[in-house]
UniProtKB/TrEMBL annotation:
It catalyses: ATP + H2O + phospholipidSide 1 = ADP + phosphate + phospholipidSide 2. It is a multi-pass membrane protein. It is an enzyme of class 7 (translocase). It is found in: Membrane. It holds the Pfam family PhoLip_ATPase_C. Residues 907-1157 form the P-type ATPase C-terminal domain. The lineage of its organism: Eukaryota, Viridiplantae, Streptophyta, Embryophyta, Tracheophyta. Keywords: ATP-binding, Magnesium, Membrane, Metal-binding, Nucleotide-binding, Translocase, Transmembrane, Transmembrane helix. This is Phospholipid-transporting ATPase. Its EC number is 7.6.2.1. The chain crosses the membrane at residues 86-102, 108-127, 305-327, 354-378, 942-959, 971-991, 1021-1044, 1059-1078, 1090-1108, 1128-1151. The gene is A02p025920.1_BraROA. Residues 44-111 form the P-type ATPase N-terminal domain. Its main location: membrane.
């Protein structure tokens, strides 16, 4: 069916001047783009998708895949990834060699563990890729309407859409491919597009079809539609497009304003028709999709060095073994009559000992391979997946408002969360909400709005404290319940501050975008003000000067607005609440309902829109020319104050002085400001200007934009200033508290923002990154005309001089409590990031308590992050919420994305995602601390147990003349790493807690254990290795000493090799499991079951294996019930060896806890004896002692106040002592 038009047949193209909109295409006036050479070979036959089924026009399908593998490539690719690891590659070679007779083991004892470990890792890869595949299936199964034949549209899955198809997309649907816009529900082919998923911007973009295709306005019109598009080849540029449309025997040029990109969403438009140009991986969004850089944690990189160390140890003892075997072959083999030296084999021929030693080297490399933990990688992966699931399921990081939980998008960096040194944060949308509230305004020289911003609250509280210290405000007048500050907080006007209680008996219902409170303007009270006409004009500028679309909310009866920016939406909300409600837009008019006119009735007024000069980043202003109902021509303008002020008429500066003062106050309060102005136009002046401006608007050439700018400047002059607005980008909930806790944990915070310096500084005060008494170091660049090398050299010398002086000032500061804040803008940062200056800048920044970089570009964010990461060598974390933060998120060691209102680009590029900045506290201080200690202890224990086990094989081989004989049964070797010792270590990595989450938050300085790497430095690693060597010596030599030289059974029989081997293996299982039990601080029933269950499983296995037929069990037939269990020496040896093996570790932890305890040891002891309940002062004192000294946050502010009070008290005491001494020396006292 044909679709009808909506919204009164708006031709919005008549409104827009700048931006993406170009002049209408006149026949013969606009030549087509010259498309020649490589890169411009694509041809699309519109409404003829069958033409693209054959070469050379066989383009990609619209099926999109983000998986790493498919059925064909999974095995080769995945195996390549697995055997990239040194340990797995070694075991692959060992498994191959085990097939040959030289192997000391059964081949399955080497092959089975390798298959299990590699198979499990491949299953994990397959599972993660399967999730990506299911996400792809979900997207590819979306449906859209596609033209079939004869003007009939049918629903079709996205993956079936082809190049050349004509599609219809409804409101709030995503575009299935890159489309050429043909027409829309608006008469002039305008449509609104949300590109949040592409560039993170929330403001709507305006697209417009060619005039020649606007008539394709219903389904029937496509019955005979045919055309040809010749355009550029697929490329990743989101903002460019070059092509031509051949239609009706004419050629029309195409540009980006006609292209609708895949993953964009149609907004404020009922429907559009478009023809598919690029599909699938040819679309621009897929061309921009890049794989995230491979990130590895510091622990994992250190683990590689440990593996290499063990490989060196393995080769060393293998060489010793092969040398020993060669020695035995040459000198002792002739005496061993049972080896038939008269008819020697190649491997035992005394004539060629070198050959025997070389061949034996292969046997030794296989025999001692258990030094390398084959199950280490897969165990770590299992543990990290469990840790990531705990992060995902943490209800305390779940945001109730948005319904978004925390998400570990990768499990490879869990432990890295516990070692962060520096956090680099975006401001807008990360520290602030990216929600604009109209808070204050200045009209006709009078400031309105009594509600305080977050910055004002923080500053007023601090000022109240300062005044109280000087005795100007009594403590009785500043109760803790005071939350609202009226008036300014300028230090020159301290007596204007009035702090009122936050208790309000008539709380106002929150209104989105409107936080204004002042009865002087509400409910028509502005009519009693001294300048009501100017106030009314102010309201009308807010209600008329915009490009928004109104939508009636049937539930509330109020209009809501789809605007291009949050600021504009807040202005319209303010105008509505003040009584000038924008309610309707037609092609040529806007309609305003004035509810509080002088007559007291609701009056609907129409303003005919003649021209709209829209906002651009270069113009920094927006204007609209309208004609009111009385025929008066008006130009209404809003923009940056610096731009508006220079365009004021002489008689338009009446309110310039007070407005400038108010703008300064608003800026200090952390508010975003705009100035509002207007002028009345004469008919003759407007007609002359409009004629010239229309010529510029329809001109063709590279100077079109310059002509439009000049034309706008001709009319945007002689303005009359009427006031200014101030909106607040509010801080997110809990941001100051989170920053304070992170500062107590010893982390440094840098803020990288695109905002101007004044706004960034004010936000810094609000969230306690800055405070009174902190010395601000502002590095700025001087303005130099021209771009010559001499001028650039002068700028660099000036910046270098500032850096040098600042570094000297910081170094010469003797006050240990002095705090410095470094503030630098993007222009200066361009020079300081160059190679000859960046390390001086970094040295200064590291010495400062806080760093704020203003007006920085996305590329500069990434460069600063790289500088901090490489320059300090410490772990960096970048956090942001927008597409402009993707660079620094990918550059940092850890990237955290916030699921905010700026799209999902940051989240998709991140390693972890959270809903609010405040959840970063728990992510790092709790989960980061736990994951670091768990992984560190787990890896250390892994190497301990493998060294303890592997070296016993070396000792036995040396004991038996380097014969290459294993003392253990092949199935014992098979089960050791895979079953008997794998589950307890996984329990350690998943469930271990040195302290609870509440304690982690109460004692944030515990986090420094990870930053200082106390649990995985080389001293601790070597300590665990030495413990493993000691345990191996005890296990082997105690067992040999006990069993070798005496009878093993009551009948006088001695133990054979299998009895000795089984006894030694029992001692190993007991020793390593008791060791891990001593390592754990937190037990649940799961740990008990896995630890003691592993020991029980060993006995069960030996019993069941021994009961098998001798053809299967071999020499261990009924070894437990007939040989070992009846022998008391077996049980005594097990007990003695186990206790002796763990004595050094018990001694170490006893010494450490009694004489050199760590912070968590003290906390554990206090909690165990419940001293925190019995003695609250002790608990508070310990919390204070276990807190990192910080110079930012609320804690630093309190500490500074305490020091100030102590200083005043000591001065008073000194004065009293001096007065007492003088009185004692006076004649009267004598």
């Amino acid at each position: 069916m044909a679709r009808g038009r909506i919204r009164s047949k708006l031709r919005l193209s008549h409104l827009y001047t700048f931006g993406c909109l170009k002049p209408s295409t006149l026949e013969g006036d606009d030549p087509p783009h010259p498309l020649h050479g490589p890169g411009f070979s694509r041809t699309v036959f519109c409404n003829q998708p069958h033409m693209h089924k054959k070469k050379p026009l066989r383009y990609r399908s619209n099926y999109v895949s983000t998986t790493r593998y498919n059925l064909i490539t999974f095995f080769p690719k995945s195996l390549y990834e697995q055997f990239h690891r040194a340990a797995n590659l070694y075991f692959l070679v060992a498994a191959i060699l085990s097939v040959f007779p030289l192997s000391p083991f059964n081949k399955w004892s080497m092959i089975a563990p390798l298959v299990f470990v590699v198979g499990l890792s491949m299953m994990k890869e397959a599972l993660e890729d399967w999730r990506r595949f299911m996400q792809d299936v979900k997207i590819n199964a979306r449906k859209t309407c596609v033209h079939k034949t004869d003007g009939v549209f049918r629903s079709r899955k996205w993956k079936k859409v082809s190049v050349g198809d004509v599609v219809r997309v409804e409101k709030d649907e995503f575009f299935p491919a890159d489309l050429l816009l043909l027409s829309s529900s608006y008469e002039d082919g305008i449509c609104y597009v949300e590109t949040m998923n592409l560039d993170g911007e929330t403001n709507l973009k305006v697209k417009r079809s060619l005039e020649v295709t606007m008539t394709l306005d219903d389904e029937e019109s496509f019955k005979n539609f045919m055309g040809t598009i010749r355009c550029e080849d697929p490329n990743p540029s989101l903002y460019t497009f070059v092509g031509n449309l051949e239609y009706k025997r004419q050629t029309f040029p195409l540009d980006p304003s006609q292209i609708l990109l895949r993953d964009s969403k149609l907004r404020n438009t009922a429907y559009i028709y478009g023809v598919v140009v690029f599909t699938g991986h040819d679309t621009k969004v897929m061309q921009n999709s890049t794989k995230s850089p491979s990130k590895r944690s510091r622990i994992e990189r250190t683990m590689d060095y440990i593996i290499y160390t063990l490989l060196v140890l393995l080769i060393l003892i293998s060489c010793i073994s092969s040398s020993g075997f060669a020695w035995e072959t040459e000198f002792h083999m002739p005496k061993m009559w049972y080896l038939r030296p008269d008819a020697p084999e190649d491997l035992t021929n005394p004539i060629s000992p070198v050959y025997a030693g070389v061949v034996h080297l292969i046997t030794a490399l296989l025999l001692y391979g258990y030094l390398i933990p084959i199950s280490l990688y897969v165990s770590i992966e299992v543990v990290k997946v469990w840790q990531a699931s705990f992060i995902n399921q943490d209800l305390r990081m779940y945001d109730d408002e948005s319904g978004v939980p925390a998400q570990a998008r990768t499990s490879n960096l869990n432990e890295e969360l516990g070692q962060v040194h520096t956090i680099l944060s975006d401001k807008t949308g990360t520290l602030t909400c990216n929600q604009m509230d109209f808070l204050k305004c200045s009209i006709a020289g009078t400031s309105y709005g009594v509600r305080s911003s977050e910055v004002e609250l923080a500053a007023a509280k601090q000022m109240a404290v300062d005044l109280e210290e000087h005795g100007e405000i009594s403590s009785a007048n500043t109760p803790q319940s005071q939350t609202k500050v009226y008036g300014t907080w300028d230090s020159s006007c301290t007596h204007e501050i009035e702090i009122e209680s936050g208790n309000n008996n008539n709380p106002r219902v929150p209104i989105k975008g409107f936080g204004f409170e002042d009865d002087r303007l509400m409910n028509g009270n502005w009519l009693r003000e001294s300048q009501p006409n100017d106030i009314l004009q102010f309201f009308r500028v807010l209600a008329i000067c915009h490009t928004a679309i109104p939508e009636l909310d049937e539930e509330t009866g109020k209009y809501t607005y789809e605007a291009e920016s949050p600021d504009e939406a807040s202005f319209l909300a303010a105008a509505r609440e003040f009584g000038s409600e924008f309610c309707k837009r037609t092609q040529s008019s806007v309609f305003i309902r004035e509810r509080f006119s002088s007559s007291g009735q609701i009056v609907e007024r129409e303003y005919k829109v003649l021209n709209l000069l829209d906002f651009t980043s270069k113009r920094k202003r927006m204007s609209v020319v309208v004609r009111d109902e009385e025929g008066q021509l008006l130009l209404l303008c809003k923009g940056a104050d610096s731009i508006i002020f220079e365009r004021l008429a002489k008689n338009g500066k009446t309110y310039l002085g007070p407005t400038t003062k108010h703008l300064t106050e608003y800026g200090e309060a952390g508010l975003r400001t705009l100035a509002l102005a207007y002028r009345k136009l004469d008919e003759e002046e407007y007609s002359a200007w409009n004629s010239e401006f229309q010529k510029a608007k329809t001109s063709i050439g590279s100077d079109r934009d310059e002509l439009l700018e000049t034309g706008a400047d001709m009319i945007e002059k002689d303005l009359i200033l009427i006031g200014a607005t101030a909106v607040e980008d509010k801080l997110q909930k809990g941001v100051p508290q989170c920053i304070d806790k992170l500062a107590q944990a010893g982390l440094k915070l840098w803020v990288l923002t695109g905002d101007k310096m004044e706004t960034a500084i004010n936000i810094g005060f609000a969230c306690s990154l800055l405070r009174q008494g902190m010395r601000q170091i502002c590095i700025t660049s001087i303005n130099q005309d021209g771009g010559s090398q001499d001028s650039k050299r002068a700028v660099k010398e000036n910046i270098l001089n500032q850096l040098t002086k600042a570094v000297q000032m910081v170094k010469l500061e003797k006050d240990p409590h002095a705090a410095f804040a470094l503030i630098i803008d993007g222009k200066t940062l361009t020079y300081t990031l160059e190679d000859d200056m960046k390390y001086q800048f970094l040295a200064l920044a590291v010495d400062c308590a806080s760093v704020i970089c203003c007006r920085v570009s996305p590329k500069q964010k990434a460069l600063v992050t790289r500088l901090v990461k490489e320059g300090t060598g410490k772990t960096t974390l970048a956090i942001g919420d927008g597409a402009n933060d993707v660079g620094m998120i990918q550059e940092a060691d850890i990237g955290v994305g916030i699921s905010g209102v700026e799209g999902m680009q940051a989240v998709m590029a991140s390693d972890f995602s959270i809903a609010q900045f405040r959840f970063l506290e728990r992510l790092l201080v709790v989960h980061g601390h736990w994951c670091y200690k768990r992984i560190a202890q787990m890896i250390c224990y892994f190497f301990y147990k493998n060294i303890a086990f592997g070296l016993t094989l070396f000792y036995f081989e040396a004991f038996t003349g380097f014969s290459g004989q294993s003392v253990y049964n092949d199935y014992y070797l098979l089960l050791f790493n895979v079953v008997l010792t794998s589950l307890p270590v996984i329990a350690l990595g998943v469930f271990e807690q040195d302290v609870s989450s509440e304690i982690c938050l109460q004692f944030p300085a515990l986090y420094q254990q990870g930053t200082k790497n106390l649990f995985f430095d080389w001293s601790r690693i070597l300590g665990w290795m030495c413990n493993g060597v000691y345990s191996s010596l005890v296990i082997f030599f105690l067992n040999i000493g006990i069993i070798y030289s005496q009878s093993f059974r009551a009948g006088g029989q001695t133990a054979d090799m299998d009895a000795v081997g089984t006894t030694m293996f029992t001692c190993i299982i007991w020793a390593v499991n008791v060791q891990i039990a001593l390592t754990m601080s937190h037990f649940t029933w799961i740990q008990h079951v896995l630890i003691w269950g592993s020991i029980a499983f060993w006995y069960l296995f030996v019993a069941l294996y021994g009961m098998m037929p001798s053809s299967l069990s071999g020499n261990v037939y009924r070894i437990l019930d007939e040989i070992l269990a009846p022998a008391p020496i077996y049980w005594m040896a097990t007990l003695l060896v186990t206790v002796t093996a763990v004595i050094p570790y018990v001694t170490h932890i006893a010494y450490q806890r009694f004489l050199n305890p760590m912070d968590h040891h003290i906390i554990q002891e206090i909690k165990y004896y419940k001293r925190d309940v019995e003695d609250a002062r002790l608990w508070t004192r310990e919390r204070t002692k276990a807190r990192e000294k910080t110079k930012i946050g609320f804690t630093a502010r309190v500490d500074a106040k305490i020091r100030h009070l102590r200083s005043k008290l000591s001065k008073k005491q000194s004065n009293l002592s001096h007065c007492s001494a003088q009185d004692a020396m006076s004649p009267r006292s004598l």
